Amino acid sequence: MPLSTHKKLVREFAESHLTGEENNDYHIRLKLDHSMRVLDNGLAIIGNEGINGRTGELAAMAALYHDIGRFPQFARYATFKDADSVNHGRMGVLTLRRLDLPGGFTDHEWRLIKTAVGLHNVKEVNPDMKKPLAVMVGVTRDADKIDIFSVILDHLSRPRSPGQVVIHQLEEHPTRYTPAVYEAVMSGGSCDYALLKYDKDFLLLLTGWLFSLRYGTSARLLRERGLVARTFGMLPENEEIRALEKKVFRHLEAKEAARPEG
């Protein structure tokens, strides 16, 4: 079954949640456009990392369908904040179970795709996960992160309607960030969303994601698109941020130079 058939299914499913109400339709289209860009990012990773054959096809499906649960989530709860509604990865699995899915994949392969969708937003991935699932999840998480960088930076860089929420109820401040968030990211890890207080905290959270990228292609795409430099350009200029910036760029250079993981 051609990729275009699956893209059509996602587009039609998303558009079935349009109501004509401006705020609702903005958020539905936001996630539809995001899903298509994540697919494009995933295909770039698959091609450049030499992920061939069925594994590559399955990884592309996981990337395309990864946020299928976002549409019923927003329709039901009017938010994308999982803590105030439902885990959108799990909602994606339930949604795929209900949809009339195209042919071309075995039941086992669809189970793998659903599992990857359910795991794409977990805080930590099991390092012992086996292929092809490990590849599917890795491609999807990297492709998702690349686009989220762009969405968040664009959101913070332009005037917007109060109802158009991409980051949740964070105080905007030109220089403040939460020390615990900085320390968690500087240590090479992630942090709990509950710690986020300022918009700069979300930018720090994004930089923390860079340490968990699976593929060198992902690091290259982020660098070439200027997304990492833009992120640091929106953070305060001080010694702490400069130290983090140096650490991040060293890590990305090493990731780009490493052999493809496959």
TrEMBL record:
InterPro entries: HD/PDEase_dom, HD_domain. Residues 27-158 form the HD/PDEase domain. Pfam families: HD (PF01966). CDD domains: HDc. This is HD domain protein. The lineage of its organism: Bacteria, Pseudomonadati, Thermodesulfobacteriota, Desulfovibrionia, Desulfovibrionales.
